[in-house]
Write a structure and sequence with these properties.
globular, alpha/beta, two-stranded antiparallel sheet
Length: about 250
């Protein structure tokens, strides 16, 4: 048995144990493939979301829901550097995707003033609702900033509150999910003896990406009563953890 294979099997056991202890809907035993009113989920974000998209793709497929990642390495943000280039393509991409829900995980590039952040998040809300979808902002995992990120930490720390203000004025078209339930309030590289976050202080490792996926599917089940997430054992051991994106873990 290969080292990678052994790791993924261990991850599966961990997920099942965690979900069973929490009463997570992912372990209800209900059959997969019941999307209810949730037909397609689109993920937006930066390279952190790129890694999380790997188990998400497997989990949504097992749950009978279409999934598409528009997350991007070195970008994917709607405010701050590179965002102008992203906006040139994003409206057409979302229109073509025809999602039910768009998940925007706040990125490590969401730099800008409060006014700039609010304008961008308002624009995202208008764009998402314009294609008939609901917008879910998700807070980013806490990072351990290096010299590149340190000057922008005030912007990143403000971003969730700006997103909440936009959601509060959206008449129910947007919501903010606090992923601190998954990550805690500070960067933690190792959890339960296994690498959960990358040593670079920014990205996730397979265990962390899988825990996030399990949590997100449960939150969607709360909001779409007809949606039954597949049990973790059906998607946590399907080979995605061997992707090169996790080579730093």
């Amino acid at each position: 048995m290969s080292k990678t294979r052994s790791f993924v099997l261990g991850l599966t056991g961990l997920l099942l144990l965690t979900a069973a202890c929490s009463g997570d809907p992912a372990t209800t035993g209900a059959p997969a493939g019941r999307g209810g009113g949730l037909s397609k989920v689109v993920l937006l974000g930066d390279s952190v979301a790129v890694g999380e998209a790997l188990p998400m793709a497997a989990a949504f497929e097992a749950s009978g829901v279409e999934f598409q990642s528009l997350a991007a390495d070195g970008g994917g943000n709607v405010v701050g550097p590179f965002s102008d280039e992203h906006w040139e393509e994003l409206p057409e991409q979302l229109a073509a995707a025809e999602p039910t829900v768009v998940v925007y995980q706040l990125t490590s590039y969401d730099w800008g003033s409060q006014q700039e952040q609010q304008a961008a998040y308002d624009k995202l809300l208008t764009t998402v609702t314009g294609v008939g979808a609901q917008l879910l902002f998700v807070t980013t995992p806490p990072i351990e900033p290096d010299d590149f990120y340190a000057p922008h930490m005030a912007d990143l720390e403000r971003a969730p509150e700006v997103a909440r203000a936009v959601a509060a004025g959206s008449s129910g078209r947007a919501e903010v999910l606090d992923a601190g339930e998954v990550w805690g309030s500070t960067y933690q590289q190792v959890r339960d003896g296994v690498a959960d976050r990358s040593a670079d202080g920014i990205h996730t490792c397979p265990q962390g990406a899988a825990r996030f996926t399990n949590w997100l599917l449960a939150r969607l089940a709360d909001r779409f009563p007809g949606f039954t997430p597949a049990e973790a054992r059906t998607w946590a051991n399907t080979g995605w953890a061997a992707d090169d994106h996790f080579k730093g873990c």
